[in-house]
Amino acid sequence: MKYLSQRRKAILLAVVAASAGLTAHAEDLKQDFIASGVTAKVGGYRPERAIMDREADFVKTAPEGLLAPKYGMLTIADKNWGFILDEPEEGDARLFLDSNGDGDFTNDPQTNWKGEQQGEFKMYSGDGLVDLGDERLGAVNFYRFDPKDERRAALKDTLMFYSDYGFEYSFALDGQTFSTFIAGVPTDSSRLPIDRDGNGKVSSRFETAVVGKPFNFTGMTYVFNVEEGSLSLERAAEELDVMPLPPNLEIGKPALTFTASTMAGEELEFPKAYAGKIVMLDFWATWCGPCIGEIPNMKVAYDAWHDKGFDILGISFDQADMADKIKEFLEERELPWPQIYEGKMWDTDLGKMHDVGGIPFVLLVDGDSGEILATARQLRGPKLSAFIKQQLEKKFDITLEDPVAAEAEDAQKPKVLKVETDGDID
To answer: Among 194, 205, 214, 283, which is disulfide-ready with 236 (CB 3.0 to 4.6 Å)?
Structure first.
């Protein structure tokens, strides 16, 4: 049988599917309303702003005891709900939401609102319910920066919010069943997470469809569209190659292989270049606070075990024209391990290859077998050095003395003062 390219396979499948009546349409989508918790299922949120610049003309019955009220309107899609934020100089702030939109702020479900001290200022957050009609109540989450924080003066009269209600959509692509979630209502820019490999995680690069943009996850190309707030799924006019599945970078799986040049000009084959060692692949950037926070732990582990078979390879997510600043950064912190720098930030080729959605992103790899030995859960924090020791002992079947522990133990021993003299001491 002759070899068929992915594109030709896709076209052939499309023809077969069309002739068999398998084209997906809006009626193939099953929609279920979810009252709350959709934000976590989607994997993030896009906050909206509600400006508190309104008069109280939409208030028919106000709550009792208002001291310093501010008025605003919450807008989601084509629906509006009034709210009152009472922020007295003394005492707790309170948030009231006209959930049913009747202007009476005394007959609605209670809204939660609290402030937590974060340094000099407070951070406020809460949640409430909005009446969506058809006897459906949907959760909305709120937050607000301290109006006294001059760094955020532009948000002094702003309440941030995002929908925590939404919909689950079930559908079939070429005989395979999938589901996705949308917070709030679908729009022409909604991103739909689709767990293609069923591992409970969603890759923003390999497992996300965007409304209005064709995608091919199974052999045929489809597109989600929105019309009058209703989501539909149709066959796309163009044919795309099948999107690869996200890489499986779990413990025990083989690491991805690549060839790249370090900042020192050395061409490096990974993981072949680390034969006889274990190596930590570290995706980081000079602008990444958590990355910098891990440097002391990495230095302790590197100093303790480098000559025993442990190495680190850094992959920078810094922007273009940063080579000199990165080198200065490395020199100041005395970081000796090699670095790969492309100057592409989130478009770094090795980052996209490894489906890196956030940094620091780390993997521990056996340079001989190429097996992934650990991920971020084991490779972050002050216990890194002890964990590397365990992995080296396991790989080489040896027992190692921990120089850090030995130094600490030695520091606890009582010091004996030895005095040398030329004669007797009376």
So the answer is: 214
Per-residue pLDDT of the chain (426 residues; tens, 9 = 90+): 333 344 444 444 444 444 334 444 444 789 999 999 999 999 888 899 999 999 999 999 999 999 999 999 999 988 999 999 999 999 899 999 999 999 999 999 999 999 999 889 999 999 999 999 989 999 999 999 999 999 999 999 999 999 999 999 999 999 999 999 999 999 998 999 999 999 888 998 999 999 999 999 999 999 999 998 899 999 999 999 999 999 999 999 999 999 999 999 999 999 999 999 999 999 999 999 999 999 999 999 999 999 999 999 999 999 999 999 999 999 999 999 999 999 999 999 999 999 998 999 999 999 999 999 999 999 999 999 999 999 999 999 999 998 766 555 555 555 544 444 454 444
Token look-up 């006019």 returns: 237
CA atoms within 13 A on the CB side of 405: 9
* Model-wide pTM > 0.85: no
